[in-house]
Amino acid sequence: MTTPEIKLKNYLKSRGLRFTPERKIILEKIFSLHEHFDVEKLYEKLNKQISRATIYRTLSLLVKSGLVKELFRCQEKTSFEHVFGHKHHDHMLCLNCNRIIEFREEKIEKLQKEICKKYNFTPIEHRLTIKGYCKKCSQILKKKK
Ligand SMILES: [Zn+2]
Ligand SMILES: [Zn+2]
Ligand SMILES: [Zn+2]
Fold first, then answer.
1. Same domain, yes or no, for 35 and 23?
2. What is the pLDDT of residue 72?
3. Which domain holds residue 60?
4. At CA 109, angle to CA 103 and CA 110, rounded to 5?
5. What residues flank ion ligand 3 with Cβ within 5 A?
6. From the CA of 107, which ligand is nearest?
7. Which residues of the chain fall short of a pLDDT of 70?
8. For 119, which of 24, 31, 99, 131 is 20 to 30 Å away at the CA?
């Protein structure tokens, strides 16, 4: 059975890079979180013990190794999530409270495959993020008007 650690070790080895203690700590933290995160959040979750620069560099390696996915950018922040053992899903992002709603809609998945076929395109992955306002925030914003 492969684990995120084995996968990352193999990736680093193939690049001639080392599996440093910092990289191990970051990896373990990410895979203990079952939520979306950005560099700042990870930095806090690591009790500010590892520098933001190291987190940035490690995250970029994790994205390249396919263990972590970059989701979307919002207000200069990039959100990530780990994908190991997670089924594909898409996201809705609330611009007011930053809440993220995950969804998977077979109709959308199927339609995208059909569109690719139409354009003779072989899809590898896609990212769909709908930005807007969640139910709670929509109600608050309506009242303000
Ligand atoms: Zn999708
Ligand atoms: Zn909201
Ligand atoms: Zn997600």
1. yes
2. 86
3. 1-85
4. 145
5. 81, 102
6. 1
7. 1
8. 131
